[in-house]
Amino acid sequence: MKKDASINEQTGSCERALEALQREKLALAQQVKRLIRAEGKLYDYQQELDAQLKEYKGLYELNRRLNRTFNMQYIFEETVAYVIEFLEFERAIFFCRSESGSYCVCALDGYYEAAEKSAVAQLTIGQDDPLLSPFTAGREYLICTADSQEQVLAGYRTKLQLNEFFVYPLGFHSLPHALLIAGNSADNAGFYRRVDAAPGPLLSMGNLVGLVSSLIDNHIFFERMTQAREQERLAEAKYRGIFENAAEGIFQRTPEGRYLEANPSLAHMLGYASPQELMAEVTDIGQQLYVDPRYHAELLRVLEADGKVEGFETPMYRKDRSIIWVSISLRVVRDSEGRPLFYEGMSEEITKRKMAEEALRESERKYRQLSEALEQRVKEAVDELRQKDRILIMQGRQAVMGEMLSNIAHQWRQPLNMLALLVQDLQLTRRREGLSEEFIDANVKRTMEIIQQMSKTIDDFRYFFKPDREKAEFRVFEPLEKALSLLEGSLKLNGIRTEIVQTGDPVINGFLGEFVQVLLNILINARDALTSRQVPDPLIRIRLFSAGGKTVVSIADNAGGIPEEIREKIFEPYFTTKGPEQGTGIGLFMCKTIIEKSMNGTLSVTNTADGAEFRVEV
Amino acid sequence: MGTSVGVGYSLHKSPADAGKEAALNALQQGNMTRPDFVFVFATVGYNQQVLIQAIRDATSRAPLSGCSGEGIITQGMVAETNFGVCVMAIASDELRFANTCVKSLATGFETAGERLAAEVSPLLAEDSIACFIFVDGLIFDFDPFREAFERSLGRDRPLPLFGGLAADNWATRKTYQYHDDQVFSEGISCVLMSGAGAVAWGVNHGCVPVGSQRTITRSKGNIIYEIDGIPALEALKDYVEDGSESQWNKVTLNLCLGFKTPDYLKPEYGEFIIRYMMDKNDSEGYVTIQSDVKEGTELWIMRRDKELIRDGLQAISRQIRDKMGDRRPKFVLQFECMGRGKVVYREQEKIDLLKALQEDIGGTLPWIGFYSYGEIGPISSYNCIHNFTAVVAAVY
Fold first, then answer.
1. Which pLDDT value is given to residue A64?
2. According to a count of CB atoms within 10 Å of the terminal CB, is the N or C end of chain A lower?
């Protein structure tokens, strides 16, 4: 029994141990499973760590390289190379803002076919491109994933030759200085790091962009600083050069009258050997340099009132007490509280200009005198010409008057004969049969009629030659009729017919006497031409009408016309075709002068089919 | 003349530039202008056709074989990126290289073995040394292929097979095999090496079992449907971090399957043969491995052990040195499981391990390799496929 009990006890103990071992085995199995799982995780982390270490090491090396350079292009190229080698995107493009504001490709890396690379290298992004808008609104990056439908980004897939990509701004101010784009083409994306919004790629890109952006900002700042310093240096050199070499005197002076700064030109202008000598010796500008201290006082008054003076002209003493004229421009330089610190300005010697101005004034005076004398001479010459014209006209008138007197004489010859016959008839009749009342009355009546006709001839003559004082309106037909009446005798004598065609009853506003003189001249010329050329059926045709608001008198003959070679000369003074015994050469000149100068009309001549036509338009 | 070998590599992103750069570097290092043969391993980011064409152009259109990998390996350099290519150019009057290929693996692995044997058979010679094969690692089942290949060749002793299963970047789901100008998938690129030479090699994994023995209760070919009477995926789920089931490549790298090594392999290979689960089916709960497995087979869940891996590499170098004696390799090919790369080791650790191995075997040797989805190398005189191993073949 004891043995059995012992066996049972041992068996129980073994079973318990076995159960414990089974539990332990199960526990160990679970631990192993956990271990396997943990090991898997460990290897995953290890890979991530390796990838990160590689990336950070690359970033560290990149930072070292970039910090040693001032070459922006090198930064761009190294950055895209880093993206390809360490971030393992297929392609990286760096756009840099150009002076025009658009973004041009300045570096690209990764695997492209030659045609793709060439196309991408030519890309530009305009400064107003909607791609940039999110950055001005503060976005840190843009992402276009393989399944992105966002319109602007998707629109760039073809241009960039990228199906999925990041866009990061770098060197941000109002607009980014550059854009870094990294991504993959559709065909090859599976072999590269994918573009997605996972922490890994964003962290990698963020680290790189942070570094490069900061470098670019530093470089831009450095470049601007360098440029500013250079500009400052150039400006200093430039203004120092201007100050030292300016032809004008440049200076700074105290309100009290001492020079603080003066350039060599000012010293030279005032007769001092150097600016230093000028500044040392002149301690009271107003008293020492101004010829008239009142000018100086006035200068300061204007300066006080306006804060500046421009072109203030004053005589000044040079060191040797000779006097020069100076033009001064001056302004007040004040401190931050508005108190005057000093005056600064420029002086220009204008002595020569002043002398020139004086010479000019003298010259102007002389010119004025000459001008006045010349004007007088011209006036006299004009008067003389006018007098000559008047004389010519008078000569012409006298010539016509002579002609008229000849006509009157001719016209009077018959009535005088008649009167003689009537007187003789009176004497004969008394002797023969005695004078009856009726005979005497008839004789007297007839005598009176003849005398009245003769008187009318005289009246007509007087009508033509009464002097014109003022312009007056007259019917054209009236002076024409009287002119023809005056010439009637000589015209009949030469068998010349006249023909008048009148349309309406045109009038002229002008000088009647002078107009008649014109008509007589033209008619007499026509008569003479007809007579001298012995035209078979001499005719003078006169037309009166209105045309174009003017009154026209056309006088045409059938004497064969005026030879073309002299047609333009017939209105010149002293030109005649009649010979010295018959013509004076002033008739038509006088006519043209009367019509065109006195009556503002025109007188012209043309040849018709059988003669000449003079046309008066007033 | 003997044998001149040069290796070059490039990490350039442009396939044309990378291919040219790697090839020219290889020619320069080998001090040759026209190689007799070229090995090429590259990663999948490149336009493969452009890459191979660039290499062909630069190497005077010498016969070329190779495949894509998850990464590339050369002397003192490993690159597990999508853009890496390495080229080994060989000019030799001691060794001869005859290359061939088989496509359309999916028509049947046994058939593929027979077809490849038919291609290789006329190339075989008395002095044939070994065959290097580079096979699509996404679909391959080694056992029916090997059996048919060896049977079809009908040799007394199997022709030693070395090589690796072509890989991608775990995401592309497409691997590439290279044969002269051709780039193809679902195929085998094969090189028969003959002549005055020999291969010293080593194979080692670095995995240990975790947990107790399991049993495959339902399987067909290279598909495991059930473990211990439950769907295979269900049996593994406790080892998988919640939420990571969808990242199958990571799961299978952290977790592999171990099978008892047959007794005839045990002395050289150790207790377990490791298998990588190259695929799964969520709805049916099964996993796929790269060799056939029978129901009732004992199974252990395995994990990688960094110390064992390190020790294993030392064992490899010892094996090779022992076999070579005082002779020096003409060149070395390394087929390294992608599960032993960056997914386990830090970058520097990985390089240090490689350098230590290279130093052990012979200093600055022409060395080329790739990270694979499976490694092929004989154990004893038996051709085997391995997972989570390094197969290092030194040609001397």
1. 92
2. N
